[in-house]
Structures are given as structure tokens and as C-alpha cells.
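Model it.
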Amino acid sequence: MDEYESNTALDRTEVTRRTVIETGTTALLLTTLPRAVFAAGPIDESGPPPAPVNVELQINGHPHSLTLDPRTTLLDALREHLALTGSKKGCDHGQCGACTVLVEGRRINSCLTLAVMHDGQSITTIEGLAEGENLHPLQTAFVEHDGFQCGYCTSGQICSAIGMLAESRLGMPSYVTEDLTQPVAELTDPEIRERMSGNICRCAAYPNIVAAIKQAAGTPA
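Modeled.
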């Protein structure tokens, strides 16, 4: 077998759980990945950074003009440029939900989107929910049901819950919705847990969070 045939055979090698265990992950990847993967070489970051851009953000009802590196995430724009630190940076990979905010009423992970993508859009963070001394109903419910312990995930939990309740009122089903032909009649515990599954509470206050959301939704806890 010549070198070309040998490389082609390696490229066709099937990576299975057994081969990973038997061969060793590093050795297996080095021998089975196509040569083109390694041919690209390291990323060259020696060039000049991209030019700054002007961004107009409507945050909690107030306009903000920012000049940002176009690679700046919405989360970093909020925390580092506007000192709105209620939105937390947890995993920074969109897996924990601590950075959840509302954009035009829809919940998003602000660590996964660029600030420039939301030029002119209405953004609501945890700081914009209360009206003066009057807390948002979900904030009140979280306090009454002790829906937080360390509090790190709480801002994302509350913003996500607001977006989730809006989705349910629009009739949007979830993975556990039994009848997709009918609107969701009641936000049961399984419905709430599924719809909030993108928000992780490391203190495991999930029963209290569910109770708080059910109260805010008008459902007996």
C-alpha cells in the first residue's frame, strides 16, 4: 500500500467509543483525522484588529451610543461598557443561562450574540424590570418562594421566566407538551422545568424556582 492509499484508509477509519477506549483519545485523533485538518496550521492573529463601530442600543428604555470592537458580545457591552452587571457571565458558552436578557421581548443568551447585531433594538436586563420601588411580579415571587441562594443565576432565571411566560401565552409548545393541536392550558411542573431547562441553578433551588414561576403565572403553587 503506497502513502496515498494509506492516508485514504486512515481518513475512512471509523471513530467509535471502543476504538477511543482501546487506542487512546489523543493517539486516535492524530492518526484518524484527515490530513487537511492539520494542513491549515495555526490561526494568524498578527494582523490589525477590526475597526471600531458605532452601536445604538435601547437598554431598559434608555438610549446608549457605544463605540465597540465589532467582536464585542452583547453581554460584554452590558457589563464592561455600561456597568450593567446584573447579567452574569457564567459559562460564556450559552450553556448556563446566567446571561439571559430580553431583546424585543424574546429571551436570548447575551454571551452568544454580538452587540452590533442589536443596533436600535429594545433590550431589557434585570435592572430594568422593577418600576421604582415596585418589583416585577416575578421578582416578588422569587423573594417570597426563596427562589435563589447564592443569587448568581437569579437574574438570568427571572429574565428567562419572563420570556418563557410570554412564549406560553402565545401558544408555543415545549418538548413535553402532550397535545400540539391545543394551546397550553396549564403550566404544569414538567412544562415549567422543560421550558426553563436552559437555565442552570448550581444551588439546586429548582423546586422554589418552579413555585415562583407558577405564582407569577397565576397558577397555584
